Amino acid sequence: MRDPRAHRFLGQIYEVQDNTEKAVGCYKRSVELNPVQKDLVLKTAELLCNKDTSDGRAKYWVEKAARLFPGNPAALRLKEKLLEYKVEDGWNELFYVTQAELRARPDDVYLNMRLVALYHSRNKLRDAVLHIQDAEKKIPLETSLEWCSCVMKTLEVPKSKSKLIKGDPAGQDKLEKLACDQKNQSGHMVLNLSHGKDDFLKETVESFANTMGLLTLFESLSGRGASRESSFLGTDEMGNVSTRAPMQEELTKYDIGAVQMHNGSLQHLVWLGLKWNSVSVLPPMRQLLKQLFHLSQETSRLETDAPETICLLDLEVFLLGMVFTSNLELQEKFNTHNETHQPPFLPLLLCKQYYTEKQRSWWDAVRTLILRKTSLLVTKLKFLVQHGLSTLRALEKRGLQPALIIHWARSLQNTGASMKFFCDQKEYIGRSVYYWKKILISLETIKKSKNIPEPTDPLFKHFHNVDIQVAAYEEEARIAFAVRDAVEGKTDDAFLAFEAMKNVVSYWNLAELCQRKAEEIMNDDMLPEEQEHKTYLLKRKHYLTKIVDKCSSDLSVADKLPVSIETVTKMLNTVMQELGELEEKEEEDLSSGKISQAADSGVNHSIPLPKKLLFSPTDSYKFSPKTLPQWAEDAQSLLQMLCQQVDALKDEIQEMKCNNASVSVSSHQWPAKSCGTDAICQMVLREHKIFMKLP
Q1: Co-location of 357 and 457 in the same domain
Q2: Where does the record place a coiled coil (predicted)?
Q3: Could you give the number of structural domains in the chain?
Q4: For residue 223, is it left (φ>0), alpha (ψ between -120 and 50) or beta?
Q5: Residue 290 sits in the same domain as residue 438
Q6: How many CB atoms are closer than 10 A to CB 199?
Q7: What are phi and psi of 516, to 5 degrees?
Q8: Cβ neighbours of residue 50 closer than 8 Å, sequence gap 6 or more
Q9: What confidence tens digit (pLDDT) does each residue in 326-358 have?
Q10: pTM for the complete prediction?
Q11: In this predicted model, what pLDDT tens digit does every residue of 664-686 receive, in sequence order?
């Protein structure tokens, strides 16, 4: 295969799959076939540097990229990465390279920061400060946040480390985990208490972040007359307290450190899940489990319960089930006691035990087997794990409540939709579809007026207040199957499945598919088919309009959408605006369509046009007979361009004849100046065919 675009596309696929070697091979072959692709040279250098900077190929491709992109920041960073790897004279070479680049581009902020960082790395603080002063005199750098941060880091006075941190690196790691745990617990409590209350944090800070507020809080906790000397609340001075709630990204980072601190405690993991669930956010179980276990994300042997097939998704499903049942149990108790003045979730140390003995035994068995902590009683541990896997994978006689399986399917589908990489998305949505297929079997049982038997000692308790209605979930299962088809690239199957459902969720997915198809057409390397692009935009408008109409007639329908109705309305307005711009462009093209230069060139307009490049008149819009169709205008423009190229070739040939009289050129090889219209037309057609073969 000698198509450079095909090799490039194949390399992109391998890159997404983290197969660096094959991706590099495909990109290299694509560059060999089409050396104009300079960006692939930089991409190949980047892949090789990220894999192994000691690889000799990395140096070759980095130097090649530096030659092709002189002064390019990305190429410079790759060169720096190679030099940093060198143990001997690496710093010196990096220093000279940075200085040379800085002489060429003295106003480059990154290069100035890089030189300061090099001085700082060798503790040459005086030289770093001198360069900072010199740079700020020559160029305005005060508006750059990165530069100001670099200056602050250089000018700050180093503090001596404590004996614990300086003498024991493990002690520093433990302190960092402890800090994450404290921020994790306090952050989740603040987020939960302020959820849905806009002024809660502001009012709390105004009430308690002062001397009188602290005294009131201390007396309410310890009683009047208690000694304040031995209390943190009694002696602390609180001021300049922020009223900003912690961000989800911050809490996720603290979650990771806290999970390591608690060493995978089941109680702590369920507590975290409940906290995220209370603010309507899916818990980041995947990221947390990756800190504890080195397992594959999914297995190809889902229909078996062999312990060696256990994967991260099995453990994630287990924790999702724990959070689901624990939340239902807490809701039952909360509603029974009617204690509306108390927060639903307490700090970790004050919480009751969330797990049953059976759940704790299974979790401990899994951890022991995976981490290989013991060689004793392995058979018993494997039996425990096997029994739990049978339940988690919804195999025969599992005794799972249908509502729990539906919760698994929904949660995994939502998590998969948020994934950035195709492989992760495919595995999550694939497991979601697996559970939807299992639930359809249960729904058939329920249809026959049969109950799902509850085992005597189930892994997950049944809650009859969440029993299901059959019809609603059958439709949701069909949506999940269609989403999987869309993810796997079976667009036509997904279109047919969604169109058969006729509900707002299917209309939303159809609108998204139409948007994807329209973008693919516009991003195509070949000439974009404007008619097809407009067709998909019209379809998208049609589906979005249907959503708005259905939501207008029944407001409860909007709750089923994955986005708000306001978002749908904005998208509809955007599509209508884009369609309006296309129509204006068509009107302008029609009004300016004239065949003026074609008569001068003597080209016959009956020349057959290739369908591959130009729009067919039968496929285009209906035009007025007074104006020229767009496809004819495109043909005219192309022929004019080719005629100009022919004229340029003739002029060049005549110059060659004049400059070198000894060279004789026969008339059948080169057209004379006085060649007629037929000869030009033949040349145009020949050039047209050559043009069509170009990539």
Answers
A1: yes
A2: 632-659
A3: 4
A4: left
A5: yes
A6: 10
A7: -65, -45
A8: 20
A9: 988 888 877 665 555 556 668 888 888 899 999
A10: 0.52
A11: 444 344 344 344 444 444 444 44
